[in-house]
């Protein structure tokens, strides 16, 4: 390829301007999402250390079920696909649980299973 392709080559200047305006907002929203996720992971890292110190299991499926129900309801009222909201939360929570497992290994040399808390 000899030329760069921005995907906006032949379009009407008014359309180009509208696309640029919308993309500026999309970029701002993406930045906000990254900052919010960074803050969320700061909190979940602290939860991971608290759990490891008290030998609590990395995952809490009951808490997750409550979060999913709450997020699905919020998504519906915001006209966002609830299935997408659930998938997005599950994606983040899976990563958090991986972090918690690593913290437990580093702190205790082991990851407790849910049954460990009942004994
Ligand atoms: C952060 C926690 O650990 C896990 C991660 C969760 C999350 O990212 O929201 C929720 C429940 C747990 O499976 C927690 O127990 O609160």
UniProtKB/TrEMBL annotation:
Residues 13-104 form the Chorismate mutase domain. SUPFAM superfamilies: Chorismate mutase II. InterPro entries: Chorismate_II_sf, Chorismate_mutase-related, CM_bact, CM_dom_sf, CM_II_prokaryot. GO terms for molecular function: chorismate mutase activity. The keyword Isomerase applies. Gene3D superfamilies: Chorismate mutase. Pfam families: CM_2. The keyword Signal does not apply. Its EC number is 5.4.99.5. Keywords: Isomerase. This is Chorismate mutase. It comes from Streptomyces thermocoprophilus.
């Amino acid at each position: 390829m000899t030329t760069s392709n921005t995907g906006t080559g032949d379009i009407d200047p008014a359309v180009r301007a509208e696309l640029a305006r919308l993309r500026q907002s999309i970029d701002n929203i993406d930045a906000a999402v990254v900052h919010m996720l960074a803050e969320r992971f700061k909190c979940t890292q602290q939860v991971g250390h608290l759990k490891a110190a008290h030998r609590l299991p990395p995952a809490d499926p009951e808490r997750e079920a409550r979060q999913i129900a709450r997020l699905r309801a919020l998504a519906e009222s915001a006209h966002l696909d609830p299935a997408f909201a659930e998938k997005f939360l599950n994606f983040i929570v899976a990563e958090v649980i991986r972090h918690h497992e690593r913290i437990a290994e580093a702190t205790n040399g082991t990851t407790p299973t849910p049954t460990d808390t009942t004994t």
